[in-house]
Amino acid sequence: MTNFLHLHRLDDQDEKTRSLSTLTLYRGGKAVYTCRALELPWKDNQRGVSCIPLGLYPVRHYQSSTRGHILAVDNVPGRQLIRIHKGNYTRDTEGCILPGTAFGDADGDGHRDVLNSRVAMQALLDLVPSGGCSLLVTADKLWNA
């Protein structure tokens, strides 16, 4: 596995409202881009309210009729339409993964969001190989063991 995205969920987060992660793209086995990511918290892989399970998934470029050019995450058990797309807040996730350049409280609600999501998303679209890659999801602790 030389071309892959590694989503690593951090233990430093508010588990009731969100999952905070680092998202690193490896090409040829070398890290070429790292950003932050926001997801919903782990709630037993429930559609629309939970982040996806730890695991390895294929990722491909995808043209969405509503979101434009994004990345699709396929073969998630019990889930469909998992995407990596721009957005800054948990209300934007719809169960998907939101990249950003940093964490910050963008809307003043006391919770960390991702910032500059458009910038991070464009970098991923530019750097993920046209044939796609894999997404490896790991965590500081076992959320869905």
Write the layout of secondary structure elements.
Elements: E1 4-9, E2 19-27, E3 30-39, E4 55-64, E5 68-73, E6 82-84, E7 98-100, E8 102-104, E9 113-115, H1 117-127, E10 133-139
Parallel strand pairs: 1-10
Antiparallel strand pairs: 1-2, 2-3, 3-7, 4-5, 4-10, 5-6, 8-9
Features:
single chain, mainly beta, 8-stranded mixed β-sheet, 8% helix, 1 helix, 10 strands, two-stranded antiparallel sheet
Structure summarized in a few sentences:
The chain has 145 residues and is mainly beta. The protein has 1 helix and 10 strands; from the N terminus they run βββββββββαβ. It has an 8-stranded mixed β-sheet, with helices on one face. Strands 8-9 form a two-stranded antiparallel ribbon.
Could you walk me through the main structural features you see in this protein, from its secondary elements to its overall organization?
The chain has one helix and ten strands. The chain has 145 residues and is mainly beta. It has one domain: L,D-transpeptidase catalytic domain-like (Beta Barrel). The strands form two sheets. It has an eight-stranded mixed β-sheet with strand order 6-5-4-10-1-2-3-7, covered by helices on one side. A two-stranded antiparallel ribbon has the order 8-9. Strand 5 and strand 6 form a beta hairpin. The longest helix is centred in the C-terminal third of the chain and has 11 residues, at 117-127. The two termini are 24 Å apart. The model has no long low-confidence stretch (mean pLDDT 92).
